[in-house]
Amino acid sequence: MNKNLVLLAAVAAVAVGVAQFAYADPVSDKLVIDGKEMITRAPAPEGHPFKEVLSGWLFREPETRALEADSFANPGMLYVERGEEIWNTVDGAKGKSCASCHNDASETMKDVGAHYPKWDAETKRPINIELQIDKCRTEQMGAEAYKFDAADQKALTTYIKYQSFGTPVKLDLAKGDMQSWWDRGKKEYYTRTGQLNLACASCHEASMGRHIRADHLSQGQANGFPTYRLKQADMVSLHNRMRGCIRDTRAEMPKAFSDELMALEVYVTWRGTGLSVETPAVRQ
Amino acid sequence: MQSGIAVVVAVSVSMLAGAAWAEDIAPGDVEFADGAVSAALTGKPGDAAEGAKVFVDRKLGNCLACHEVSALKKQLFHGNVGPSLDGAGTRWEPAQLRAIVTDSKKVFGPETVMPGFYSLNVGVNVRKDLVGKTILTAQQVEDVVAYLETLKE
């Protein structure tokens, strides 16, 4: 009897908590998509502030989690399909498509995206998938570089990243100057910006697991990007999201693919080492 | 003659600062002692009702983003990055609340997440139109402090 009352009280408290304040720890559910179990918790690499890295999926509402778990319902899968079309479509003066050189992406791009950004010896800076696509387009295809966040850029990036679906994120920091870019990214991560005087770490490290209004603060992982964001009802690139966070501190936004954001991409991606690539993830 | 010029300069400076009153204490001149600011920032007493509006307004204090307040249950989604403010008016003296709202880093140390609402010790690359501006005016800080004083345990 007493036990039942206690249980009832606990259930009521949880219900009230969810309705009013939505306080919750990251869930302990497993994420299985098309029969493949995603790694949503992984032991953190050495030098990481957390013991365990956690996918943002664990912090989302049940409906959002269900949407990602069902690849038929996941709106991000439309971008994967569109990306496949682009892969096979000729563009530019040289009459080539991606497939002209790289053939079947499911073989040639398998697990490639899980290791980006990587060192680019030519430009002597890290290169991400978007910039690698642009390099192919301008140098090999005789096509123009994409404008930042063009629908085709997001779709093709999503398609290429999707070829690493389920593969754990792992960067090679030993190549070139990757380590110094990681160092710079770490510095940026802890630098407070804007009138609100907040760093990435203020929310995604110091306040991880807590709520800002209705938003359950995750570790701010990059493993699901490009990600389908319900708030924007669109595919959102990593640089779009980082710019959005910085804007929300009431700061001037750095340019996409600037040194500042490339360094942050290296560092933030490393912070998710061991998590499965979830692209196209679904977030709030 | 010279005092006349001084008055003209003072008036134009206060006009430049928008709604600020000539007797407002400038952000850089606020005196902190033992985690408290004993002098009011303006010559006008804080208005708790106005303070409640500033507290809730997402473009002003947006305090509920990080703090919960049981008295404001009608507002959805209170955050919990910071502590609940239930009973804040019992736990803190007005001078302490004024210090925390003005620049919490002067009270809790540099690592606190809470922004300084009447401080120019801000982050890098501040949005151009906000350079040199505080999140709240001196009067809004006084109003919020008056509101917090009503949160008794």
CATH superfamily of the largest domain in chain A: Cytochrome c-like domain
Mean pLDDT of chain B: 90
For the largest beta-sheet of chain B, the strand count, sense and barrel status come to: none
- Number of self-contained structural domains of chain B: 1
Structural class of chain A: alpha+beta
β-strand percent of chain A reads 5-15%
Rg calc of chain B: 16 Å
Q: What kind of oligomer do you see?
A: heterodimer
Give the CATH class of chain B. Answer: Mainly Alpha
H/E topology pattern of chain B: HHHHHH
Keywords:
heterodimer; A: 284 residues; alpha+beta; Cytochrome Bc1 Complex, Chain D, domain 2; 11 strands; B: mainly alpha; 6 helices; 35% helix
Summarize the structure.
Chain A has 284 residues and is an alpha+beta fold.
Describe it:
- The complex is a heterodimer of chains A (284) and B (153).
- Chain A is of the alpha+beta class and 284 residues long.
- Chain A has two domains: 40-70 and 174-283, Cytochrome Bc1 Complex, Chain D, domain 2; 76-162, Cytochrome Bc1 Complex, Chain D, domain 2 (Orthogonal Bundle), CATH 1.10.760.
- Helices cover 40% and strands 10% of the residues of chain A.
- Chain A has helices spanning 2-21, 62-69, 76-87, 98-102, 105-108, 129-141, 151-162, 178-189, 200-204, 238-248, 259-270, and strands at residues 32-33, 36-37, 41-43, 52-54, 118-120, 125-127, 211-212, 215-216, 227-229, 234-236, 281-283.
- In chain A, strands 10-9-11 form a three-stranded mixed sheet. In chain A, strands 1-2 form a two-stranded antiparallel sheet.
- In chain A, strand 5 (118-120) and strand 6 form a beta hairpin.
- In chain A, helix 3 crosses helix 7 (151-162) and helix 8 (178-189) crosses helix 11.
- The longest helix of chain A has 20 residues, at 2-21.
- With 153 residues, chain B is mostly helical.
- Chain B has one domain: Cytochrome c-like domain (Cytochrome Bc1 Complex, Chain D, domain 2, Orthogonal Bundle).
- Chain B is 35% helix and 0% strand.
- In chain B, helix 2 (48-56) crosses helix 6 (138-149) and helix 4 (94-103) crosses helix 6.
- The relative contact order of chain B is 0.21.
